[in-house]
Amino acid sequence: MRAMIFAAGLGTRLRPLTDTMPKALVPVGGKPMLERVLLKLKAAGFTEVVVNIHHRGQQIVDFLRANHDFGLTIHISDERDALLDTGGGILKARIFFEHSDEPFLVHNVDILSDADLSVLYERHRQEGSVATLLASRRETSRYLLFDNENRLRGWTNKATGEMRPAGFRYDTVLHRPYAFSGIHVLSPSVFGLMDKGGWQGKFSIMDFYLSVCGEARVMGCLKDELLLVDIGKPETLEQAERLFI
Question: What CATH number is associated with residue 83?
Answer without folding.
Answer: 3.90.550.10
